[in-house]
Amino acid sequence: MGGCLSGDLKGGKQAIGGGVHGRSTMNNDTGHNEAIHHFYTVRGHSPLFTLIEALNLNEQDFLGETTCVLSEIVTKSNRTLTLNLRGKNGPGGSRNFGALTVHAGETFLSRMTVEMKLCCSRLYNVDMFSKSDPFLRISRQTEDGNHVPICKTEVINNNLNPVWRPLYLSMQQFGSKDDPLLIECFDFNSNGNHVLIGQLHKSVSELEKLHKDRSGANLIFPSHRGQEKVLKGQLFVDQFIEKEHFSFLDYISSGFELNFMVAIDFTASNGTPRNQDSLHYIDPSGRLNSYQQAIMEVGEVIQFYDSDRRFPAWGFGGRTYDGTLSHCFNLNGTNAYEVEGVQGIMSAYASALHNVTLAGPTLFSHVISMAAQMASQANSNCITKYFVLLIMTDGVLTDIQETMDALVRASDLPLSILIVGVGNADFKQMEVLDADDGRRLESSTGRVATRDIVQFVPVQEVHSGQVSVVQALLEELPSQFLTYMRSRNIKPLHV
User: Which stretch is the leader sequence (predicted)?
Assistant: First the structure.
């Protein structure tokens, strides 16, 4: 965990967890520490610790145990929470097991960040009919000699002398300033088969020296025979700033909130809800369908970072109570779009299945524009609110360009969009919206998104892997939040 946890027990401080554990990330703006990973990927209703056992460290005697949700700690201004201890079989009746005070902190390493602005000149052109579309990928070398990608720039089209936006590397990502990094320059291809233009090995210290000396480093093209060809193309470091950044925890503990919103697909391709093979089938046994699972898993994490826990909930692609086809209707069937808590979303969803006729087509632009409107209105009055829209769908978009236009407009707002794909449809369009390949979304007018605000996860693929839907969905949210705040120089409260 990128921080430490300590507890005060019967007048003396006892260690209950801590240490630094680095993890890699492919985010191109900033890394997030392991503490953030934990409080997003551990389900909100689960305890932070499966068990906190208070022990006499000298004799290892059991003194009591307790559980808590990490959000209960990090949302406190002093990140401190006092919990009553209990026995292994629950409360001990008249027996007093005492109390445990838990404090969450961050190590200096989790906050130290290097901001660099990289550029290249005279790159070799690997395209036949136009100039290359270059982007950089930076990887850290592991102990076994392999390389793990930790960062990448955006793609710059048709340019052999690219200047990329500033990128951020945390010390958790690159380790020591003297550890070698592999910097690769690729020509982007939409099919994913990117072509290597050149590469070089440099540590953060060496990159800092390039900046100070105002000199460049030649790219090298590796050979299968072990020989290297030195290229004319060079890498330059136009900007190098080493500083301590505010972390996600700094914002959350100072009063910033995540406001949760939900939009559910009511198109006919989901299947008639009363049929057992329908994606909307409500199982009498209580087994959740994919829509319900996504609502519960994501909602139960984010709800802890929303003070009033009133969530806008919409449906799209269905005929509402009066027979009107709507691509953004209130899920609860009233004039009020908000519901109370995650259970309110679940109840409104179940009710809507009885009152809304599945129709189509599948359009995202309406619900994205509605969420963007709310984020814009809130942003003009309050800078401490950041919005998270969860869209769940089973189908192929029919308004892909309108959706891209809406996303580009929304990229300037305090908003992130999580998309869950349920069923077995072809979700290649969603991968384009996700923009994880480094190419920023572009609107029909040629405007480019200022940042990536979308994370897409297909349920079928996630269930076959090692991570949960909520882990995959929320992986990029802290960095998207921080990118927005830093780009507008918004600082935590009381700083």
Answer: none
Task: Give the mean model confidence (pLDDT) for residues 430-439.
Answer: 77
Measured distance CA(339)–CA(365) in Å, rounded:
22
Distance CA 274, CA 276 (A): 6
Query: How many residues does this entry show for the chain?
Result: 495
Weakest-pLDDT range from 73-77, 88-92, 381-385, 476-480? 88-92
Residue 61, CA distances (Å) to 65, 181, 356 in order? 12, 47, 59
| pLDDT greater than 90 at residue 245 | no
Give the closest residue to 256 by CA, choosing from 431, 385, 438: 385
Omega cis (within 30) before 361: yes
254-487 maps to CATH 3.30.365.10:
no
pLDDT score for 430: 86
Establish how many alpha carbons lie within 13 A of residue 100's alpha carbon, considering only the half-sphere containing its beta carbon. 26
**CATH architecture of residue range(s) 112-244:** Sandwich (2.60)
Residue 253 or residue 226, greater confidence: 253
Confidence (pLDDT) at 110: 59
* Segments of 191-308 assigned E as strands: 195-203, 217-222, 228-244, 257-265
Is-contact 155 135, C-beta < 8 A?
A: yes
First to last CA, the chain: 25
- Measured distance CA(282)–CA(384) in Å, rounded: 37
| Mean of per-residue pLDDT scores for the chain | 83
pTM, rounded to two decimals = 0.71
Q: What is the predicted pLDDT for the residue at 194?
A: 92
Coil, strand or helix at 239: strand
Q: Which tokens is 494 given?
A: 């009381």
β-sheet with 147-152: strand ranges across: 147-152, 134-141, 180-187, 195-203, 217-222, 228-244, 112-121, 167-170
**pLDDT over threshold 60, residue 44:** no
